[in-house]
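Now for a sample.
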Amino acid sequence: METGPGVVDLFSGAGGFAEGFRRAGFRILLGVDNDRAAIRSFKANFPEAIALAMDIKEVTGTLVEKLVGRPDVVIGSPPCEPFTGANPRRRENPLDRLYEDPMGQLVLHFARIVSELRPRVFVMENVPAILDVATELRKVFAQAGYERVYFNKLLAEDYGTPSHRLRVFISNIPIRPPKRRRRVSVEEALSGLPAPGDPSLPNHEAQSLPDRKLKRIARLKWGQALVYYEGARGKRLPNLIRLDPRRHAPTVLGSSRFIHPYEDRFLTVREQARLMGFPDNHVFLGGKDEQYNQVGEAVPVPLAEAIAWEVKKFLEQNKH
Protein backbone atom coordinates (compact mmCIF):
# COMPACT_ATOMS: atom_id res chain seq x y z
CA MET A 1 0.00 0.00 0.00
CA GLU A 2 1.49 3.32 -1.08
CA THR A 3 1.68 5.93 1.65
CA GLY A 4 3.17 9.02 -0.03
CA PRO A 5 1.31 12.35 -0.21
CA GLY A 6 -1.60 12.35 -2.65
CA VAL A 7 -1.67 14.46 -5.83
CA VAL A 8 -4.52 15.59 -8.06
CA ASP A 9 -3.46 16.75 -11.54
CA LEU A 10 -5.80 19.20 -13.30
CA PHE A 11 -5.24 19.66 -17.06
CA SER A 12 -3.14 16.52 -16.75
CA GLY A 13 -2.43 15.87 -20.43
CA ALA A 14 -0.43 12.68 -20.85
CA GLY A 15 1.07 13.10 -17.39
CA GLY A 16 4.49 14.79 -17.53
CA PHE A 17 3.83 16.84 -14.39
CA ALA A 18 2.42 13.80 -12.58
CA GLU A 19 5.36 11.62 -13.66
CA GLY A 20 7.79 13.97 -11.92
CA PHE A 21 5.74 13.79 -8.72
CA ARG A 22 5.49 10.00 -8.92
CA ARG A 23 9.29 9.82 -9.14
CA ALA A 24 9.53 11.84 -5.93
CA GLY A 25 7.33 9.33 -4.10
CA PHE A 26 3.90 10.97 -4.40
CA ARG A 27 0.73 8.99 -5.03
CA ILE A 28 -1.04 10.10 -8.20
CA LEU A 29 -4.71 9.95 -7.28
CA LEU A 30 -6.53 11.65 -10.14
CA GLY A 31 -5.97 13.24 -13.53
CA VAL A 32 -8.49 15.50 -15.30
CA ASP A 33 -8.41 16.51 -18.95
CA ASN A 34 -11.06 17.08 -21.62
CA ASP A 35 -8.74 15.87 -24.40
CA ARG A 36 -9.81 12.27 -24.95
CA ALA A 37 -6.49 11.07 -26.38
CA ALA A 38 -4.48 12.78 -23.64
CA ILE A 39 -6.55 11.36 -20.78
CA ARG A 40 -6.31 7.89 -22.34
CA SER A 41 -2.53 8.32 -22.31
CA PHE A 42 -2.68 9.47 -18.69
CA LYS A 43 -4.65 6.36 -17.69
CA ALA A 44 -2.25 4.08 -19.56
CA ASN A 45 0.71 5.56 -17.69
CA PHE A 46 -1.00 5.86 -14.29
CA PRO A 47 -3.25 2.80 -14.04
CA GLU A 48 -3.42 3.28 -10.27
CA ALA A 49 -5.08 6.71 -10.68
CA ILE A 50 -8.60 7.73 -11.66
CA ALA A 51 -8.66 9.44 -15.05
CA LEU A 52 -11.55 11.86 -15.66
CA ALA A 53 -12.34 12.86 -19.24
CA MET A 54 -14.17 16.02 -18.20
CA ASP A 55 -14.31 19.72 -18.84
CA ILE A 56 -12.68 21.39 -15.85
CA LYS A 57 -15.67 23.74 -15.59
CA GLU A 58 -17.80 20.73 -14.60
CA VAL A 59 -15.36 19.48 -11.96
CA THR A 60 -15.98 20.40 -8.33
CA GLY A 61 -14.04 19.90 -5.14
CA THR A 62 -16.94 17.81 -3.84
CA LEU A 63 -16.61 15.43 -6.81
CA VAL A 64 -12.84 15.13 -6.33
CA GLU A 65 -13.21 14.40 -2.61
CA LYS A 66 -15.90 11.81 -3.33
CA LEU A 67 -13.55 10.03 -5.76
CA VAL A 68 -10.17 10.22 -4.03
CA GLY A 69 -10.53 12.15 -0.77
CA ARG A 70 -8.80 15.47 -0.11
CA PRO A 71 -5.37 15.58 -1.77
CA ASP A 72 -2.24 16.99 -0.15
CA VAL A 73 -1.22 18.63 -3.43
CA VAL A 74 -3.04 19.98 -6.48
CA ILE A 75 -0.99 20.58 -9.63
CA GLY A 76 -2.08 21.72 -13.07
CA SER A 77 -1.24 23.36 -16.36
CA PRO A 78 -4.13 25.47 -17.72
CA PRO A 79 -3.78 26.33 -21.43
CA CYS A 80 -1.18 28.99 -22.12
CA GLU A 81 -2.62 30.20 -25.46
CA PRO A 82 -4.47 33.22 -23.96
CA PHE A 83 -1.22 34.52 -22.46
CA THR A 84 1.64 33.53 -24.74
CA GLY A 85 3.24 35.94 -27.16
CA ALA A 86 3.31 33.14 -29.74
CA ASN A 87 -0.47 33.57 -30.15
CA PRO A 88 -1.18 36.22 -32.83
CA ARG A 89 -4.79 36.48 -31.57
CA ARG A 90 -3.84 37.18 -27.96
CA ARG A 91 -6.05 39.89 -26.46
CA GLU A 92 -4.43 43.29 -26.06
CA ASN A 93 -5.65 43.92 -22.51
CA PRO A 94 -4.00 41.44 -20.08
CA LEU A 95 -7.08 41.25 -17.83
CA ASP A 96 -9.21 40.33 -20.86
CA ARG A 97 -6.91 37.34 -21.35
CA LEU A 98 -7.91 36.12 -17.89
CA TYR A 99 -11.56 37.15 -17.64
CA GLU A 100 -12.87 37.41 -21.22
CA ASP A 101 -10.97 34.70 -23.10
CA PRO A 102 -12.80 31.39 -22.46
CA MET A 103 -9.48 29.53 -22.30
CA GLY A 104 -7.99 32.15 -19.98
CA GLN A 105 -10.93 31.63 -17.63
CA LEU A 106 -9.69 28.08 -17.04
CA VAL A 107 -7.03 29.55 -14.75
CA LEU A 108 -9.89 30.84 -12.61
CA HIS A 109 -11.42 27.37 -12.55
CA PHE A 110 -8.09 25.97 -11.33
CA ALA A 111 -8.20 28.51 -8.49
CA ARG A 112 -11.85 27.64 -7.79
CA ILE A 113 -11.08 23.94 -7.37
CA VAL A 114 -8.07 24.77 -5.20
CA SER A 115 -10.33 26.93 -3.00
CA GLU A 116 -12.79 24.03 -2.66
CA LEU A 117 -10.16 21.39 -1.88
CA ARG A 118 -7.76 23.53 0.21
CA PRO A 119 -4.69 21.36 -0.42
CA ARG A 120 -1.58 22.01 1.62
CA VAL A 121 0.27 22.91 -1.60
CA PHE A 122 -0.85 23.92 -5.06
CA VAL A 123 1.39 24.43 -8.10
CA MET A 124 0.08 25.88 -11.37
CA GLU A 125 2.29 26.02 -14.47
CA ASN A 126 2.06 28.54 -17.29
CA VAL A 127 4.13 30.75 -19.61
CA PRO A 128 6.04 33.77 -18.22
CA ALA A 129 3.61 36.15 -19.97
CA ILE A 130 0.99 35.21 -17.37
CA LEU A 131 2.94 37.54 -15.08
CA ASP A 132 1.08 40.35 -16.88
CA VAL A 133 -1.83 39.43 -14.58
CA ALA A 134 0.23 38.58 -11.50
CA THR A 135 -1.41 41.26 -9.33
CA GLU A 136 -4.84 39.95 -10.24
CA LEU A 137 -3.81 36.35 -9.58
CA ARG A 138 -2.60 37.30 -6.11
CA LYS A 139 -6.15 38.53 -5.42
CA VAL A 140 -7.70 35.41 -6.95
CA PHE A 141 -5.65 33.03 -4.82
CA ALA A 142 -6.11 35.19 -1.71
CA GLN A 143 -9.86 34.77 -2.20
CA ALA A 144 -9.19 31.03 -2.53
CA GLY A 145 -7.63 31.09 0.93
CA TYR A 146 -3.93 31.48 0.15
CA GLU A 147 -2.53 34.82 1.28
CA ARG A 148 1.00 34.05 0.13
CA VAL A 149 1.51 33.37 -3.56
CA TYR A 150 4.87 32.84 -5.23
CA PHE A 151 5.70 33.22 -8.93
CA ASN A 152 8.61 30.83 -9.44
CA LYS A 153 10.37 31.27 -12.81
CA LEU A 154 12.30 28.14 -13.67
CA LEU A 155 14.41 27.09 -16.67
CA ALA A 156 13.83 23.43 -17.53
CA GLU A 157 17.37 22.96 -18.84
CA ASP A 158 18.77 23.86 -15.39
CA TYR A 159 17.19 20.68 -14.02
CA GLY A 160 18.21 18.02 -16.54
CA THR A 161 15.73 18.64 -19.35
CA PRO A 162 17.45 18.39 -22.77
CA SER A 163 15.39 21.31 -24.16
CA HIS A 164 14.86 24.96 -23.36
CA ARG A 165 11.71 25.91 -21.48
CA LEU A 166 11.12 28.94 -19.29
CA ARG A 167 7.95 28.61 -17.28
CA VAL A 168 6.30 30.18 -14.25
CA PHE A 169 5.07 27.94 -11.46
CA ILE A 170 2.52 29.75 -9.31
CA SER A 171 2.29 28.25 -5.85
CA ASN A 172 1.62 28.91 -2.19
CA ILE A 173 5.21 27.99 -1.26
CA PRO A 174 8.55 29.15 -2.65
CA ILE A 175 9.99 26.64 -5.13
CA ARG A 176 13.75 26.95 -5.65
CA PRO A 177 15.20 23.55 -6.58
CA PRO A 178 18.99 23.21 -6.68
CA LYS A 179 20.26 23.48 -10.23
CA ARG A 180 22.23 20.71 -11.88
CA ARG A 181 25.89 21.36 -12.61
CA ARG A 182 25.63 20.76 -16.34
CA ARG A 183 23.02 20.71 -19.06
CA VAL A 184 22.02 17.71 -21.17
CA SER A 185 22.69 17.94 -24.92
CA VAL A 186 20.52 16.69 -27.77
CA GLU A 187 23.14 14.06 -28.58
CA GLU A 188 23.03 12.71 -25.02
CA ALA A 189 19.25 12.74 -24.98
CA LEU A 190 18.90 10.78 -28.21
CA SER A 191 21.73 8.31 -27.58
CA GLY A 192 21.01 4.61 -27.40
CA LEU A 193 17.76 4.70 -29.36
CA PRO A 194 17.14 2.04 -32.01
CA ALA A 195 16.32 3.07 -35.56
CA PRO A 196 12.78 4.40 -36.09
CA GLY A 197 10.26 1.62 -36.58
CA ASP A 198 11.84 -0.72 -34.03
CA PRO A 199 8.87 -2.58 -32.52
CA SER A 200 10.47 -2.70 -29.05
CA LEU A 201 9.82 1.02 -28.49
CA PRO A 202 6.40 2.75 -28.48
CA ASN A 203 5.85 6.00 -30.41
CA HIS A 204 9.04 5.60 -32.46
CA GLU A 205 7.77 5.52 -36.04
CA ALA A 206 9.36 7.70 -38.73
CA GLN A 207 7.18 10.19 -40.57
CA SER A 208 7.25 10.01 -44.37
CA LEU A 209 7.94 13.31 -46.13
CA PRO A 210 7.56 14.43 -49.75
CA ASP A 211 10.76 14.54 -51.84
CA ARG A 212 10.53 18.31 -52.24
CA LYS A 213 10.59 18.85 -48.48
CA LEU A 214 13.37 16.30 -48.03
CA LYS A 215 15.57 18.23 -50.45
CA ARG A 216 15.01 21.45 -48.50
CA ILE A 217 15.71 19.67 -45.21
CA ALA A 218 18.98 18.24 -46.59
CA ARG A 219 20.31 21.79 -47.06
CA LEU A 220 19.69 22.84 -43.45
CA LYS A 221 22.61 23.30 -41.10
CA TRP A 222 22.42 22.83 -37.33
CA GLY A 223 20.20 25.47 -35.77
CA GLN A 224 18.56 26.54 -39.05
CA ALA A 225 14.76 26.50 -39.47
CA LEU A 226 12.80 25.35 -42.50
CA VAL A 227 9.86 27.72 -41.89
CA TYR A 228 8.88 30.75 -39.83
CA TYR A 229 5.45 31.72 -38.53
CA GLU A 230 3.98 34.88 -37.10
CA GLY A 231 3.38 35.30 -33.38
CA ALA A 232 1.89 38.20 -31.42
CA ARG A 233 2.69 41.68 -32.75
CA GLY A 234 4.18 40.26 -35.94
CA LYS A 235 7.09 38.50 -34.25
CA ARG A 236 8.66 35.85 -36.52
CA LEU A 237 9.11 32.49 -34.83
CA PRO A 238 11.02 29.46 -36.22
CA ASN A 239 9.75 25.92 -36.73
CA LEU A 240 11.19 22.74 -38.23
CA ILE A 241 14.66 23.44 -36.81
CA ARG A 242 17.57 21.08 -37.42
CA LEU A 243 18.86 20.37 -33.95
CA ASP A 244 22.42 21.12 -32.91
CA PRO A 245 23.60 17.90 -31.24
CA ARG A 246 26.03 19.75 -28.95
CA ARG A 247 23.37 21.95 -27.35
CA HIS A 248 20.04 21.41 -25.62
CA ALA A 249 17.06 21.70 -27.97
CA PRO A 250 14.82 24.76 -28.36
CA THR A 251 11.43 24.73 -26.65
CA VAL A 252 9.36 21.67 -27.55
CA LEU A 253 5.83 22.80 -28.42
CA GLY A 254 2.74 20.88 -29.45
CA SER A 255 2.99 22.43 -32.90
CA SER A 256 6.76 22.11 -33.26
CA ARG A 257 8.62 19.43 -35.13
CA PHE A 258 12.38 19.11 -35.01
CA ILE A 259 14.72 17.77 -37.66
CA HIS A 260 17.25 15.15 -36.62
CA PRO A 261 20.78 16.54 -36.30
CA TYR A 262 22.32 13.90 -38.61
CA GLU A 263 19.43 12.40 -40.59
CA ASP A 264 17.08 14.15 -43.04
CA ARG A 265 13.84 13.44 -41.19
CA PHE A 266 11.63 14.74 -38.41
CA LEU A 267 12.20 13.42 -34.93
CA THR A 268 9.83 10.66 -33.93
CA VAL A 269 7.37 11.20 -31.08
CA ARG A 270 9.67 9.11 -28.86
CA GLU A 271 12.69 11.27 -29.71
CA GLN A 272 10.74 14.45 -28.93
CA ALA A 273 9.63 12.81 -25.68
CA ARG A 274 13.30 12.18 -24.85
CA LEU A 275 13.88 15.95 -25.23
CA MET A 276 11.22 16.46 -22.52
CA GLY A 277 12.78 13.88 -20.20
CA PHE A 278 10.03 11.26 -20.53
CA PRO A 279 11.06 7.66 -19.84
CA ASP A 280 10.83 5.34 -22.83
CA ASN A 281 7.98 3.34 -21.26
CA HIS A 282 5.73 6.42 -21.09
CA VAL A 283 3.23 5.90 -23.91
CA PHE A 284 1.27 8.44 -25.96
CA LEU A 285 -2.05 7.35 -27.48
CA GLY A 286 -4.17 8.84 -30.25
CA GLY A 287 -3.23 10.09 -33.72
CA LYS A 288 0.30 11.17 -34.59
CA ASP A 289 -0.41 14.90 -34.20
CA GLU A 290 -2.16 14.22 -30.88
CA GLN A 291 0.92 12.34 -29.67
CA TYR A 292 3.26 15.20 -30.61
CA ASN A 293 0.88 17.63 -28.90
CA GLN A 294 0.86 15.60 -25.69
CA VAL A 295 4.66 15.70 -25.59
CA GLY A 296 4.93 19.41 -26.38
CA GLU A 297 2.22 20.52 -23.97
CA ALA A 298 3.64 18.63 -20.98
CA VAL A 299 5.68 19.88 -18.06
CA PRO A 300 9.13 18.35 -18.67
CA VAL A 301 9.59 15.37 -16.38
CA PRO A 302 13.00 16.32 -14.87
CA LEU A 303 11.69 19.82 -14.04
CA ALA A 304 8.50 18.36 -12.58
CA GLU A 305 10.55 16.02 -10.41
CA ALA A 306 12.78 18.86 -9.16
CA ILE A 307 9.64 20.78 -8.16
CA ALA A 308 8.13 17.69 -6.54
CA TRP A 309 11.13 17.18 -4.26
CA GLU A 310 10.81 20.80 -3.09
CA VAL A 311 7.11 20.25 -2.37
CA LYS A 312 7.88 17.03 -0.52
CA LYS A 313 10.52 18.79 1.60
CA PHE A 314 7.97 21.45 2.53
CA LEU A 315 5.36 18.86 3.49
CA GLU A 316 7.83 16.96 5.64
CA GLN A 317 9.01 20.11 7.38
CA ASN A 318 5.47 21.33 8.01
CA LYS A 319 3.64 18.25 9.25
CA HIS A 320 0.39 18.94 11.03
